[in-house]
Amino acid sequence: MKTEQIEKLTHFINGKKVEGKSNRYGDVYNPSLGVKIAEVPLASKEEVDEVITLAKQGFNEWSKVSVAKRMDVLRKFRDLLAKNTDKLAEIIGRENGKTIDDAKGEISRGIESVDFALSAPQLLKGEHSVNVGGDINAYSMHKPLGVVTCIAPFNFPIMVPVAMSTMAVAVGNAMILKPSEKVPFSALFLSELWDEAGLPAGVWNVVNGDKEAVDALLEHKDVKAVSFVGSTQVAEAIYEKGTKHHKRVQAFGGGKNSMIIMPDTDLDHAVNSFVGAAFGAASQRCMAISNAIPVGKETADAFVAKLKEKIKELKVGTFDDKNADFGALISAESKESVLKALENAIEEGADLAADGRNPKVKHPEGYYVGATLLDHVTPDMEVYKQEVFGPVRNVVRVDTLEEAIDLINEHEFGNGVTIFTDSGSAARTFTENIEVGMVGVNVPIPIPVGYHNFGGWKRSSFGEGQMFGPDTARFFTKRKTVSERWPDTSYNESKTDFSFPNN
After folding, report:
1. CA angle 262, 412, 461 (to 5 degrees)
2. 398/360 same-domain check
3. CA terminus-to-terminus distance, the chain
């Protein structure tokens, strides 16, 4: 087995790297090789409290900086992200396991979020009314909240933290990022870029940690808002605890995303689209397609036959293998969980159409599962009900479009869904009746671009607002409305008015 030098990582606090004080560390692995590469400090409550105090000081300075100067920092940060794409992709691949091309795609989406955050001056404009009554003018303004926190997942070490945090910084808040302890390198490198871009100390902080750090952030009175991405179970817990402590919370959970395949669609196109959307990043995406739902037996038989042949061509490999279609799962525990879900599905009666349990890989010590397909999956099976965060995908057969829509609408998750069809009528029926937050028509992964809102329905999302798009500015600001009058100094009001103000 290949060994790597084990690094001792730090936090990034108040503009500099800071060693952990808790004497607790988490192990960081290279999933492609299955070897430990670093130890990351796990912050104590006391350390988190110290960071919040420093972030509050950073906020007091940053919130008074002009919008124009804030945008200058953001533009420099955006340029540094683009300039360092290759280095960032290498970091992501090494700690996450996804391929270099996939990592570069993630970085590109992150840059989209910075591009949108540069529109903050437009989004911060308030409303103004002249002489609403009695020579009174009324106007509103958007003010930053203060210290806010983002709790990010392992599967998008750059895109999600950037998407969650950039607008928060742009509108004048101070940020504390708690990245997944599985992928700390990316967050620390982002810190270097923010520092190089000229962001004042204390405005951007990275606290590595586990549940103790998260609880400290959720409970502290000076943390005003929390943005989270992760599993549904944790999202709900974050939402409940955060709101209990009077915070604004947006918590994005899991999904069980489906692709409906209509009889009139080009099956080759549908198969190619499904394979990429289902197995890319080893299926470790909340927007990955979990279920193929072909309509009609003839469509299903033909689709599965073509899909099985396509799956045979897929190659699993290390993050830097240019021929690999996707890489390893994030951890040994994740691999074990995925294989257990597969075995349970077979026991429940699903047909194993493609078996990826023993892929041919150069480094078998890595956390690999190959592309796996289950046919004749039914809604009562656990593999249909629960999100499987790995390359085990389902074929669920139905007879009509209406049956497919009802099936999806009855599921507890409502993150993403798509339909492949040549029929405008079918597409309209689908888009109008489906109860899911992000919807695609002939689009394999219906994730919105950076200037549209992102967010699921039902148990895929808890709390206020959405990620990406205009909702980010609304979430990280509060509205203040001013009514003002400058009376004529020669006017002498001789009577006190006790009636409710009116026009």
Report:
1. 105
2. yes
3. 79
